[in-house]
Amino acid sequence: MSDDEDVQIEGPSLAEDDPMRAFLPTSFGKRTREADIAAQIDRSKRTVNEPTVNKSKSQDSDSNVGSDSENDSDDSDDEDEYPTSHEMVIKTHDRAVTSLSLDPAGGRLISGSIDCTVKLHDFASLTPTTIRAFRSVDPYETKASAATESHPIHHIEFNPLAGSVFLCVSAHPQAKILSRDGDVITEFVKGDMYLRDMHNTKGHVSEVTTGTWHPTDKNLCVTAGTDSTLRIWDINNKRSQKEVLVFKSRAAGAAGRTRMTAVAWGSPAQGGNNVLIAAALDGTLVMWSGNGPFARPAGEIRDAHKPNTWTGGLDISSDGRMVVTRGGDNLIKLWDTRKFKEPLVSVEHPSTSDHFPTSNIKYAPNSTSIITGSATGHLHILNPGNLRPEYTTPVTPGSPLITVDWHPKINQIITGSANAETHVLYNPTMSTRGAVDVMSRAPKRRHIDDNPELTTDQSLGLSGESIITPGALPGTKKTGITASGKSKDPRRPHVPQQTPFLRSQPDEKHISKNIPLSQMLHEDPREALLKYADLAKKDPVFTKAWKDTQPVTQYADVSDEEEDGPEKKKVKR
């Protein structure tokens, strides 16, 4: 074959539309696998059938006028107004997610759950195929081998002024301050439960329900408890609270005490006095001046919500003037701190606080909207003026949406539901960093270290527990007995089964052999002493030395005729 001749390669005789062409190579050599970022983001787009959009406009009466295309374009514009077009789902908990928080920079997400753990997620290390927590923390676990108690997580919140620490409130009298890596820094002291006057106690005497941070001081936080008190703490002093605010309930039969269910500490963005507002189980809404004094509240509204219903949602607007509450009486109310007497607006909204007390309500950044969840799993975005729903979209249909938050810096909404799922809602054009960066990364290749069942956490591994007690590791304890009556634990010897009669009667042979004088228990004491009477008379032990010299005892004979008593003395005259 000459060099001038062209080499012809016969190709497969396949039609242009044959599906087998998808399996044929298009080029030779090693090809670099590049991730299709646009396709990844498109896959994370939420498939919502018919989102409910209710815009409070003056042209509502004329909404039927116009073409269908114009209505569709309006709906799409409303959807683009909020960062809810795409979502990232995080499934790291085993039970319902009760609280969520993002650090001020928006790079780290923490979530608390009824499963008594706090999960820490770092957006910088997540990829579309490796969405998991880098650490799971039980705030009340001391050692892995010790028998410790666990408590459900009520509230967790990053310090808005210092993202290095966050507040952790569990179903326990002592709240804790943890670092952003999950290490316990401070544990506040527990008060004396036997003191009646709460002003004299150094800490909460019963369960803490919630808490929050000071809006302008990074070293102060406040906690609310079931002992009818709010306590302001300095995180640098864990031995006693800085201030104690005792709320005296006026409800009949409450003895002056109730449970504090929610607390919010707000400050105007343009400066001014901050305000501290709390809700109680007896339906009261109380307001204090955030800078003190705290001896008497600045405002108090009795029966703000129905008594004995849990008001778990409470938030203050960015200007410090408006307060929104979500009660257990299926009502959302809007209040004005300048006229703290009657609600401005009241709308009905199904409550979930009877099953999930941490159900909250939040203001959007710059107080342009109000967001909250519902029992049906929908996210409701409300108008801050009239509390009418502006946008409603399903997040976890059929499972209650418990906690929500809208981060101002990355412009993303995070939600926690009763099905143990955490959703991060975002819009690729409106949102920055966070879930957008996660979905923009190339998927990580599968590795054996990706399976947590085959790896060991270094913080919980052998380096943390150098001495392992046999049987102390999880999964090694075998309790109970087999069908034949033998113990499942190989370290426990086999104990023969005893009948009820033998269980109550000791072994008589063992007692008579090993316990001295045990036979005396079955003898008559009089007969036992008379048995030695003849021997004591013949061979006395104590009077044997005077046996020969002992005089014979002589007794005087006294007749019955003689007077019984001595002669009477003569009476002196």
What do these coordinates show?
Helices cover about 10% and strands about 25% of the residues. The chain is built from seven helices and 29 strands. It is flat, with a radius of gyration of 40 Å. It has helices at about 35-45, 70-80, 435-440, 500-505, 510-515, 525-530, 535-540, and strands at about 50-55, 85-90, 95-100, 110-115, 120, 135, 155-160, 165-170, 175-180, 185, 210-215, 220-225, 230-235, 245, 260-265, 275-280, 285-290, 300, 315, 320-325, 330-335, 345-350, 360-365, 370, 380, 390-395, 400-405, 410-415, 420-425. By secondary structure, it is mainly β. The strands form seven sheets. A five-stranded antiparallel β-sheet has the order 1-26-25-24-23, with helices on one face. A hairpin with a 4-residue loop joins strand 28 and strand 29 (about 420-425).
Which structural class fits the helix and strand makeup?
Answer: mainly beta
Strand content: 25-35%
The biggest sheet amounts to: 5 strands, antiparallel
Strand order of the largest sheet: 1-26-25-24-23
Distance between the termini: 179 Å
Which geometry do the CA atoms define? Answer: flat
Low-confidence stretches: 56-73
Q: How confident is the prediction overall: mean pLDDT?
A: 81
Helix content: under 10%
Rg, nearest Å: 40 Å
Strand segment count: 29
Q: State the helix count.
A: 7
